[in-house]
Amino acid sequence: MTRMAATRDGYGQALLDLADNPKVVVLEADLGKSTKSLHFRKAHPERTVSCGIGEQNMLLVGAGMAASGYIPFASTFAIFTERAFEQMRNGVARPNLAVHLCGSHGGTHTGTDGSSAQSIEDLAVFRTLPNVTVLHPCDDVSTRILTTRLAGTKSPSYMRTARNKTPVLYDDIDPDSIQIGKGIELKDGNDVAIIACGVLVSESLKAADMLMQEGINASVIDMHTLKPLDGQLVDQMVERCGAIVTAEDHNVIGGLGSAVAEHLVANKFAPLEMVGVPDRFGESGQADEMLDVMKLSAKYIVEAAKKAISRK
Amino acid sequence: MSKSIADLEEIARKCRVEIVKMVHRAQAGHPGGSLSEIDLIAALYATRMRIRPEQPDWDDRDRFILSKGHASPGMYAVLAEMGFISHEDLKSYRVLGGVCQGHVDMKWCPGVDFSAGSLGMGLSFGMGCATAARLDSSERRAFVMIGDGEMQEGSVWEAAMAAAHHELGNLKVILDRNRIQNDDFCEEQMRMFDIPAKWKAFGWNVKEINGHDMTEVMEGLDFLEAPENCNGPSILIAHTIKGAGISYMENNPSFHGAAPNDEQFHQAMVELGEVEA
Fold first, then answer.
1. Same domain, yes or no, for A9 and A119?
2. What element of type H or E holds A70?
């Protein structure tokens, strides 16, 4: 039986892993129970700063602490990180202060809270900021490893995590194989490459199984880092498969699909089909229902793969 | 602390000369708010800030955060006076590649602790510096200068509430209450009502002074440093005059963000005692 877990739990665990470093501090905006920073707060209240329901202040408190030698990890819902976008832009990214922002509950997979809580644009907006690394891991194991790696970087980051559980893919993996900026090839095929992030990585593996039953052999890439994009791996997929599909629980505008498209048009080219939220807001629904409503689930990835192949 | 009131007034006068020169040379910039803040910043740096100009990134330095970062000529003039940058550097104000960027920038100018330019951000950053100092068990303080128009930004009040909640006695704010913002008088743009009462209600220690009377400025800085006011954050509300020291700029909203022409520049130098009439 596949273990199921939410990426936000990996984030919470990573903060505890990092606690031995006395410079690591946690900033909260009244959602620590949800983003899972609460475990750090319980263990290290003296290094946890409550900013109340004030995301703009939180980001800049982080900037001030980073400028004073600390390594701040700030979290809230993905949607509310956007409220502090300009603070991230002017106060964090511009002076290149290593504040690590985590937006949990990203995407329509967030579910029944409805469209106000389902960020579909966070990856796009933070990807536009110079100096900012943008991550969206697919399981709790990789989230934990990537979060701990962030503490060793010298620039700011945005990481999206998800509220709901998805299949765990990396139990027993060698941690060295999970590195910021390096995509992971989960399945090796040569007819089409599915490049996915977050909750759609496991959907992409399902899609690859479905394709295999039809004799189509797909590669599946976990592109957990959207920026900097692993362009070398994209080039390899273009050469080997000649057709690309991207899959993300995010607006088709500006996210992983756009990042891959930006790379393709300037490098080795292949037809690209983008599976993503079709430029519309969500609604209340269960996580799996939302993937169908938004045309993101495995069967839609299969359709996109066939279309991409037909365009070769 | 050995500087006399007359010494401080002379430092501020010299800084005013540099402010007008910078803005005139660039034919752009913000003279009004630089001239309203200058007595306060000059006195703060000359008598209170624990800093090492030869080592601008000294960990245990006090931080100064100019949240109203458009009023950068005032800060650059003081940094030159203190030796962080040279007077020659002041000529780089708003010039490509210059250390004196349009708005103060920590990546460009030695002695600048905060990259400003977007109002409402400095107090939060200062709260971060103060929180870090407390975690380090350091005596260093975070001084933040904000403008009155800036208080219309909601995030200022997020920070005000949070700093009081965390009882950050090492966080000291100076409000440059010059009553004018970009488009017009603050009172026309957004009425402020009772500013001291607002800050008191948010849990801050509050004192009001005349921000151009150097004796009162020193009393105000004493207030910010007084042990009895280190139980939580404190704010010095300094009543100032936009454009203070140059007759045609004083209380004139046009000089929030406009440079003097050659004739006006000459008049300013006369009024500041730099040249004969």
1. yes
2. none
Q: 3-state DSSP helix/strand/coil percent for chain A, to nearest 5?
A: 45, 20, 35
ipTM value for the complex: 0.95
User: Residue A199's domain spans which residues?
Assistant: 184-310
Question: Chain B contact for A240, CB < 8 A?
Answer: no
The answer to whether residue A176 sits within a structural domain is no
| Chain A residues 95-124 with a CB less than 8 Å from chain B | 95-96
A155 and A230 fall within a common domain: no
Catalytic, out of A28, A55, A248, A273: A55
Looking at the complex, report in whole angstroms how far the Cα of residue A60 sits from the nearest Cα belonging to chain B: 5
pLDDT in tens, B33-43: 999 999 999 99
B162 interface with A at CB cutoff 8 Å: yes
The secondary structure of residue B92, as a DSSP letter, is G
DSSP state for residue B61 in the 8-state scheme: P
% of chain A at pLDDT higher than 70: 100
CB distance from A179 to chain B under 8 Å? no
Asked, for residue A19, whether it belongs to a domain, the answer is yes
Residues of B in contact with A52 (CB under 8 A): 158, 161-162, 165
pTM equals 0.96
Of the CA atoms within 13 Å of residue A52, those in its CB half-sphere come to: 14
Question: What amino acid occupies position A69?
Answer: G
**CATH number, domain at A46?**
3.40.50.970
Looking at the structure of chain B, the number of domains it has is 1
